[in-house]
Amino acid sequence: MAHAADDSLRDRPAVLAKVKPLTTLPRRPLVLNNRDFHWITDKICRIVEDPAPKWWWVCMLVSLFIASFLGVGLLWLVSTGVGVWGLRAPVFWGWDIVNFVWWIGIGHAGTLISAILCLLRQKWRTAINRSAEAMTIFAVMCAGIFPLFHVGRVWLAWWLFPIPNSEAIWPNFHSPLEWDVFAVSTYFTVSVLFWYMGMIPDLGTLRDRAVKTWRKYFYGVLAMGWRSSTRHWRNYEMAYLLLAGLSTPLVLSVHTVVSFDFAASLLPGWHTTIFPPYFVAGAIFSGFGMVLTLVLPLRTMFKLQDLITQHHIDCMCKIILATGSMVGYAYSMEFFIAWYSGNPNEGFTFINRAFGQYGWAYWIMISCNVISPQLFWFRKVRENIALVFIITLFVNCGMWFERFVIISTSLANDFLPSSWGYYSPSIVDIFTFFGTMGFFSALFLMFARFLPMLPIAEVKHVMPQADPHWHPEGHEEEAHAPLVASVAGKGGRS
User: Which of 202, 303, 383, 491 has the CB geometry, 3.0–4.6 Å to 452, for a possible disulfide?
Assistant: First the structure.
């Protein structure tokens, strides 16, 4: 056997002897241009400490002006009644539920980036997780407006919670709409805790750097006595890990419960078991689209190219490509299930979606959600920042139309042809929806102005300098050589 092995080694081509297999693939740096820890702290803190740039004031004024539409629309609604929303038989769920599901979906990317990618040890999440978490909280706040005011008498909305009153009236726990109350409120609470917990070390840094008295008190109260001691870091990391574990099931459960609003009914086009995974994939898809929509302009305005690198954008584009392909698969499976079920009502519903009175909305949805993300297969597209930004706008638009198509087409053409109708939004619907977009933008601009937009401590943790074996001259091999030689020597002597 030994002679046979020697003969086989001699028979190998000489070129194989020169082949040196690569033991480890080089990793793309997460912070460019060899920045040090001081530069990271100064760059992120200066965004908060320096006077607000002119473009920030312009964007803030525009956002507040658009947000005023929300106040006008809600005041009109409360003073007049829900009928001003354009809800007419047979469509009694219109833009209100469409906007609720759309905003909840946008809020999914923050928890996914913060919790699941944290548990999976994906280091590229560090530059974008803070902005994504803030986006999640603000999106859920916008989403909660619609069911809150949809009850009509908004001052009685607390009846949705299981609080017994003098009449011993309890909510209907069999209703998926009641499940939404618990799912969304839990999701919002955990998301706020997760977002705030991650900011505590950075708030302590801002407190220590503050010059003005009001800043010292403001960030000092928010930092909760953070002193960056070993005990503080140990407790912080344990709490952050526990919140990541609690948040992970919420990523899957919240939009699953939202999908039950439709899947638990008997209406053709809604009564299907594919909705839970379909809605979760769509939520992650739209959430990452909104993250890029927000981060790319701020990356340019604040000159954060060294911290939010092309690698981060590349990873997010690939996730959008993957989830967009899942959504496209779900669209095709809906037609297959309708045909395979043999139910003529189901078959008519999906044919009507594509070629009926709402066909224009269906094909906008297909173009934005299925076709446009396929451009991310090409590296040149992913490296073109302007083109990536435009595609993310298409993704956000397409996901709104997806919710509109699901809700409106199924309700407008139900079992009884004599009651068929065509839903059109009223001016109050339009004011309320675009007002929430202004409200969301104003909140996000305030977050970027007064709180650290990037996690200082977490970005430092993924830098080469955080490695205890890192050498300042860049000669890591030489630094490791004595250790390797000593280990080899011990192995030889043993």
Answer: 202
Q: Which residues of 383-393 are buried (b: 16+ CB within 10 A; e: fewer)?
A: eebeebbebbb
* Cβ pair 160, 144 in contact under 8 A: no
* pLDDT tens digits for range 446-475: 999 999 999 998 888 888 887 777 776 544
Tokens, residue 348: 């008519």
159 CA to centre of own chain:
30
Report the Cα 80 to chain-centroid distance in Å.
35
Of 331, 279, 266, which is closest to residue 104 (Cα–Cα)? 279
Split at pLDDT 50, 70, 90, the class of 159 is confident
What's the CA dihedral at 97, 99, 104, 110 to 10 degrees? 180
Instruction: Give the Å distances, CA to CA, from 69 to 76, 431, 437, 446.
Output: 10, 5, 10, 19
Instruction: Give the separation between CA 106 and CA 179, rounded to whole angstroms.
Output: 19
Options 3.40.50.620, 2.70.50.60, 1.20.1630.10, 2.120.10.30; which CATH number does 36-484 get?
1.20.1630.10
Of 77-81, 238-242, 484-488, which range is least confident?
A: 484-488
Query: What are residue 295's DSSP bridge partners?
Result: none
Q: What is the pLDDT of residues 47-72, one digit of tens each?
A: 998 898 999 999 999 999 999 999 89
The model carries a pTM of 0.86
